[in-house]
Design brief:
Chain lengths: 151, 839
Amino acid sequence: MDDNPQLTDYVTFATAEQIFGLPIARVQEVFRPTRITRVPLAGAQIAGVLNLRGRIVTAIDMRSRLGLQAREADAAPMAIGIESRSESFGLLVDALGEVLRLSDSDIEANPVNLDRRLAGVSAGVHRLDGQLLLVLDVDRVLDVSTEAAAA
Amino acid sequence: MDDLLREFLTETNENLDRVDSELVRFEREPNNVEILGNIFRLVHTVKGTCGFLGLPRLERLAHAAETLMGKFRDGMPVTAEAVTVILFTIDRIKVILDQLEAHQKEPDGSDGDLIDDLGRLALQTKPAPRPAPREKLEEPEQLEASDRAVSHRADDERGDRVASHSIRVNVDTLDYLMTTVSELVLTRNQLLEIVRRHEDSDFKVPLQRLSNVTAELQEGVMKTRMQPIGNAWQKLPRVVRDLCAELDKSIDVEMHGADTELDRQVLELVKDPLTHLVRNCADHGIESAAHRVAAGKPEAGTIRLTAYHQGGHIIIEVADDGRGLDVARIRAKAIEQGLASAAELAAKSDAEICNFIFVPGFTTATRVTSISGRGVGMDVVRANIEQIGGTVDLQSVPGAGTKFTIKIPLTLAIVSALIMESAGERFAIPQLSVLELVRASSGGEHRIEHIKDAPVLRLRNKLLPLLYLKSVLQLGSGEGEDGFVVVTQVGSQIFGIVVDSVFHTEEIVIKPMSSKLSHIAAFSGTTILGDGSVIMIIDPKGIAQALGRVAQSGRDDGPDRDDREEAWADDVVSLLVFRAGSHQPKAVPLSLVTRLEEIDCRKIEISDGRHLVQYRNQLMPLLRIDTQSNLKQEGAQPILVFSDRGRSMGLVVDEIVDIVEDRLNIEVASEQPGVLGYAVVKGNATEIIDIGHFLPQAFADWFRRRELSTDQLQRRVLLVDDSAFFRDMLAPLIKAAGCQVVAVGSGAEALDALKSQKRFDLVVTDIEMPEMDGFALAEALRAMPGIADLPVIAITAMVSADAIERGRDVGFHDFVAKFDRAGLIAAIKEQGSDIDRAA
């Protein structure tokens, strides 16, 4: 189809039935979070902090971050570990999908009517078979404080 | 040995060893530009440092060698002879360095021979016959011989030869080691926790060994980060020397225990407070030479710095042999600045009164010097030291001197913390912040009681304000009767944090807060407990913020007056909400209220149609907010008492509703007399009462009031008045006129505020102020670059032709009588429109 397409690998995950993708280069690891300590007075988007092999990881609830409805209490989330500015973060998601290799040239800009919360963190959309994959901009996802202040 | 010299020796010896080997390599590969560049740079560094340290002999040698190598770099052929001479030069430098280390000064002697050789080689393009190198080799020995007479002492000192026994390690490496060891400590704690649960574990013995080794390792690594306190003292003699010149005093600085070591992070943090204390001793403590001689003391004063270790802490004392603190003056100032009443002070010991110098804004200096006396400083000293978990104490003996004692932990990385629980969540609080633990129960010795909604605890005849951790952290309400009170202190405020239970203490490693959470003042960090879970570390300072100004008072004359300026600037104000007359809530800034009283109705007298009551041996007029509100016929009548300079009035209210912290944004101005306007206070539309309306009714001469204009834009007004009462009075008035107000209590503070990059459009200043009066302030202001044109309005009780004349000279733009509040607003408005035109 193309001569020399630029390909990017995405870690995909589902949250509230929507599929998202994160560039694999930014993903440190994937883990099942245990014993999340919630932090009083922190915004709803911060699920809490947890200990991952001696490091303190700040867990971000992606449902809240993306403005989706809250997860059912008994549903155990998965976490995607990300390092940013020598801090560790864990994005709490419903379920992990497979790693997809997609061509950069196929990415489409956000539709103009995309939910503002989603558009704020999305870098574009990939059309998959029967589904749309929203590519997330990691840095914007982690920019929780400003988002919380604006909200 | 001088630290600079020590470092130079270590570094130069390292460098020279490298030059040695590089030169040898260079001789074999004369065309290797990279090696040459390395050597050149090393020699250049040596030269530069020698020049800096005042070591002429070394400098000359290095310079000559550098010149020759410069020629190589420029393309001159490299000869064996030249390399040999350079190597000789380096040997010579080493000999000199050895002597330098032994005697701390360059040995006498000349290096003319080598310098000549180097110079000659640098000048010629072709190698020439040169003197036999043997001669040069003997040179070092001669040097040794000539110094033999004084080398005896040097031999003893060889024992701690710096050059070979110390290495330089990057601080990052040490910090990394510290972090790693901290992790090890945590892991050890986890293992211990597991083994504790299994009684007969084979792991017990080896784990005990591991535990010991870990402890030793931790100590060892901590040692690597230790630096002598002397490093923080280094610049103090110079500071004092300069001050002596400025103050015309003679002061010696003595240092004891300069080699006492503490963590380098802590060291950095105590440098400034120490400098400030020493400056204070020099300025306030030590008398002038004449006074000293008159008092039978030696002419030169002494400032003594002492440091020593004491159980995991380092104690640093800063003592002077000066006049000691003037307790009477501190007492007078404390009253004058409204920090405490005379009656309260009478009950305090001299030592307690002395502690007022740590209160923000406090100063007894009658004149403001460039050194101290601006009332900023001692509070900052205390705040800085408390920030690192330390304490400051002071002892003062009149006529004999003052001694400050600072106690700080040796390291900040690992602290002992108390683990506690509130609303099912665990938290840690640094043990250093915990004064004591009290168990409170409804039936027990200590009971949590309530004054209206404020929980308090009686503790040894004092009332301790309490905060429920779960309320502060919004984990739920349910303020139970039973629990543990963690007594803690922030600044001078002692308060209790109520938690559900306390567990044990644990050594914790403080990990920085996530950047996403660092805005939460209640926490200072996070940590991982022995069982692997993450918990938050409580910051008592952040918790104390929730106590707010209500609890900060701790005295019965209203909140800490020093915080009021800030409150206006930050817009968050404590408001006393009450009802009187109508159902609508009314509020006044709590800072204006002197006291809340309930008066027996039978004591209220009527004279000349006015209600009066005998109050503290005076007749106090009672006023009603409006005609709708009536005095009670029987029982207790609640009143708000307002006082200034010996006069008091009582405002009759129906009930006191609450004290709240909120922004005072007057959204709707009011034409109704006695009401400044309406603001939303905790969700309710509330009338903000203008006390200024009532004061003249109580005393006709208090001041007059007319309607306010409210169409001002958001201008920034700097209000300067030494009377806290008038500040609190005028600030809301100006605020209601639509300006932002920053109120300060002295000319010096005003200048500080103006210097601190804050934009002001207008200055309103009192004329009669101690230390720096309004005239002096205006003059100082005119001399400041950038704001010389800032309009200044003077408010004064003494409007005389003379004063107006003088005011013109110093550049007052307007004069307003102190009680002419409408006039003031008009003047602000007028000056404001001038600004608009100019802009």
